[in-house]
DNA sequence: GATGAATGAGGGTTCATTCAT
DNA sequence: GATGAATGAACCCTCATTCAT
């Protein structure tokens, strides 16, 4: 009878909380992320926060872990269909210019994650694995050096395009990927 | 015997506080940066924090402004002696492999800054100016596209080398800078 | 042995806090009323203050609202049994010489309230309602002018008797109420 | 050469500070009266506050003392020309309806003062003297009882007229003063 | 299992006051 | 004498966390 329906039998509350945590981090930064804000964003009672997570730390770690997972799998999806060197070039260009980076949300999260991971050793493996993905795929088609460098190049382009208003176009990316992999 | 010395008439305390703030940010992140921690790091009384700065916001902004300034001027120093295209190549390689990035401190700060600036529009200009420096110098020797891309490449290398344990060597950087600027 | 008892599930804590707030205001003035002092007076943890009240402002407003309520209802009790003009005279005299004003507490609070209300428009309605009560009752037995004036007279007597040591006696009050209502 | 002229040889700075203190009290209440606000209102350096006054307490006391003085002397001026009983009646009516009470400033100050004096015994004598003034003059023309009561009546009228929007008119005051002094 | 009322540590900030100049 | 830079105590308030239900 009350306006606020009781909320029971909700299997993936934990998941929803994690997603909401990422939203809150994107909006307020890790600095401004509080149990209260996340609870409200996820529409769960405050008590649920420490019921599902041992503490703020655990929540942040899981949130960033999920972020890394999500991005990794997107990247993987882009890369795993690759058969030829030319497809590899195309895939890496696609990724650099992906829609994913059009919204600032993901990049902000990536920066927050990076800064956070630098202080939270437990996140390092996840981060390294993520960063290793493209190298893994790329090294099937190019040398190891080229793979590393291509990877770094893409990261740089993404960062550059978000931070600066002087964008690098798809054509420019294409041109230089050609040069790097000639 | 370390009694609390009276501490008056100390010029450039403001400066010391800003430096300490950067130290604290590097260690605890913006999230964990508090007046109390900074005050202790700078060895000034708590009251000094809001005496010298209108509030936490102002302190963070000035800290990041200084960071941007410091890095900018280092970068400028590296680049301004450049006369020939070959020197430009060398300078950019030097910068990518600079000692500056050996300590995680600066990179962590750069990430915190970036994430913070994304939410603090007042920091954007400073950040953009910083990011534009190398492009400015590089475009005197290469085309505009190449300048942008070189810049992104260097950022990517730096980031890659900090985040991943699979480092890109100086030789590799050199090789690919050659290719990009051929 | 006065260890700090655990103190949960205590109904009407909010009420006790409000009462304690009035005590503190009476003793230290609004100027000297702090969360800490009230918390100690009410024997509740400091955190309870802003848990039960959005802020100091809300606490003060509720405290003064209660004061007005309490006094209003006492006044009403005194007046509502009145049937005849003579009873009305008696009631107003009773009120002027009421025990309520023997303790300075209530008068001090009344002054603090008045001064506070002058700057806090949200309290005005409550204050006006309070001031209108006796007029309402009195005007059933005397003219409107007389009601207003009787009201003012009583307020003046009360104030005078608290502030000055040269008291107005009950007999004197009686005599002049007779003259005013003759 | 600076825009802010040095301020020297200013004989009555202390006085100006006291006046400004009353302004600040009227605007913010004793609760909101700080050295900084008074210093700004008086346009004196902050350091002057504790140079001229031992502390906030002393400042408040002197401010309220001056308030009492000012009001007393105005009252005295109104009353001292009185020769006949009729003039005394007129004078007291004038005072009750005086312009002084038209501005809320003075009444607010009076309330703040009263509340403050109740807690600051050192102000009591001043307050009693003030309250005794009109009685002194009035008792030359009426009986002691009547004098006391007239005094209280006037105070009540003033208070009523400020606090309530249901004003007592001059005619009504006149009518009841006649009754009280018949 | 799940909740939300309750707590107290610690946050940013203000301010009366001190004291070297 | 007069100042204002400097201090630290105390302010209000937020929040992660606990625990009785």
For the record, what is the CATH homologous superfamily label of the largest domain in chain A?
Tetracycline Repressor, domain 2
Q: CATH topology of the largest domain in chain A, what is it called?
A: Tetracycline Repressor, domain 2
Oligomer: homotetramer
**CATH architecture annotation of the largest domain in chain A:** Orthogonal Bundle
Number of domains of chain A: 2
Distance between the termini of chain A: 70 Å
Overall pLDDT metric of chain A: 87
Q: Helical residue percent of chain A? A: over 70%
The CATH first-level class of the largest domain in chain A comes to Mainly Alpha
Low-confidence stretches of chain A: 1-7
Strand count of chain A:
0
Keywords:
homotetramer, 182 residues, mainly alpha, Arc Repressor Mutant, subunit A, Tetracycline Repressor, domain 2, 0% strand, elongated, disordered N terminus, DNA-binding
Describe the protein in words.
The structure is a homotetramer of 182-residue chains. Chain A is mainly α and 182 residues long. The first copy, chain A, has two domains: 10-53, Arc Repressor Mutant, subunit A, CATH 1.10.10; 70-180, Tetracycline Repressor, domain 2 (Orthogonal Bundle), CATH 1.10.357.10. Helices cover 71% and strands 0% of the residues of chain A. Chain A has nine helices and no strands. Chain A has helices at residues 13-28, 35-42, 46-52, 56-80, 85-96, 104-119, 124-138, 144-163, 170-180. The N and C termini of chain A lie far apart (70 Å). Mean pLDDT of chain A is 87; it is low at 1-7. Chains in contact: A-B, C-D. Chains C and D meet through helix 6, helix 7, helix 8 and helix 9 of C and helix 6, helix 7, helix 8 and helix 9 of D. Chain B binds a DNA duplex (21 and 21 nucleotides) through helix 3.
